[in-house]
Amino acid sequence: MRDIQIPNDWDRRGLPGWSYHSPQLLELEKEEIFKNHWQIACHVSDVPESGDFQTFDVCGERAIILRDTAGELRAFQNICRHRGSRLVAEDSGNCPSAMICPFHGWVYNLDGTLRGAARPDTFPPLDKHEFALRTLEMEIWNGFVFIRFKPGPQPSVAELMQPFEEEAAGYRMADHVPVGDMWTEESPVNWKSVRDVDNEGYHVTMAHPALQDLYGAAYLDEPYVDGISRTEGCFTPSKGRRWAVRNYKKYSKPQSFLPEDLHRKWLYYGIFPNVVIATTPETVLFYQEFPISTDRTLLRSGVYKHENEDRQQRLARYLASRIDRETVDEDIQLTIWSNEAMTSEFFEGFYLSDLEYGLRTHHDHLRARLPIYSVEEAPQEDEVRLLNAKMAAEVG
């Protein structure tokens, strides 16, 4: 872990309630927080063969991750250059030799270049590069495929995650393969309420009996520093009171290559603004959330196993997934209760525990991107963008 000291006099307030239900602020968040920060689109094993693809939508933007005929991964805007149609409509699949637009039949090679338009005689000559699909910035880190739609403030993923590189390498994440399809679910809350719950472990003792049984007080949060955070839960020595936890502890069997200090530990690597990569002795996974509206959020996750797991490891992975799903359901309810308060005239704001410093530092990162979060009283909706721009200019 990084050596991080928590100050004694830190501000225990969170974001103001109005910021969870402002449509104009949400539009700023889409532009300045989601579209220009790194997002996980998939894992390399989701697109193993030539022509395999995975689509990925973020805040009105559309991407396609594709393996070309040379075996290289590419990231494109999922937008036909003719009329802007969604070029690939399915979530995942295979384009054997080309991508064909379902609107008018324009055809693109797997390297993104234009192969040809339908009825070419009705167009001037079309250059295959000029009318190629627009590429997206992409980087692969430990098997996870990151993209961003616009240039942003973060460095490369490798530079961003360098403090965790040595530890993460022990999991050989790139060698894992998918456990089923991507999981998605809509939740009736603002996206920040999801982050607020996930970024602190103060609630584990009360709200997550399975996690408490699994690692109890041995749950260590690290705040967000330079855009990343780390949390770990070490298994308690007890056998476990709950059926799933008791049997998971009994059957958990780490991969032979995993360093011994990671044999009985769950880790969570947070990446600002909304990505978490989590590891267990049996699996690696990611999860993230995206705003649909001020009060609707899309939850998204992918889980990956080691290709050569044995029966005991498969059983342990199943039991871990039961614990994790129970935790997700509990967290969804917590986010709903927390989010409800944001519209109440009687909500007076957060007062955070030292154990919620991860939440506070995530809020600090948000304020650094959009200084209007520091305004305590709700501004007029039509003033949000201008006020934020004025405050940003004053900051420098």
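^ that was protein a. below is b, sequence first then the tokens
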Amino acid sequence: MSENKDIYAQTKSQMRLSERVVAALPGFKGYREKEMRRESDKLIRNHLYLKLSNIKDNIRGIFQKITDRRYMDVLPDMDRLTAKIDRVTEKINHASYGYSGFFDIIKIKEENLDNMITFDTQIIDYINALTVTVDAFKAQLITNDYNNLKEKIQTVTDRLEALEVVFDKRNEVMLGVKQ
């Protein structure tokens, strides 16, 4: 919780003098506060996207090693895993920032934006678990240990699916349905 407040506080503290003056205008302050919350969340999700991009590169390297060794029975599984990591990475990269139009019935409130920041910060735990799993798989292949490939691929796939299931609940958090 404090980590997301730190990102928001850091964003707020980096405002230029002209931005602070404009932010003090009646009616504009709330707008600017929401905007800073969205920018803070964008920073977090960019971090998540970069971590997932590194995982994706490692998965492609694993796929290449398996292909070079001609383990044809697991290639379809690796192909599905590669497609899934691409989809999840882009889903996180292009997720909504919490905007709602002026005439929209459902408005995104500040506390829901704060919950969204907290939620996205917690996604880091899932990505870290996925990183550990992929790194262990890669290390196994580096030592020329190609045993239990199907199980290893399934473990990575399970972690990735867990990440996606949790991330899919983000809209509910943003709308204030869940916390």
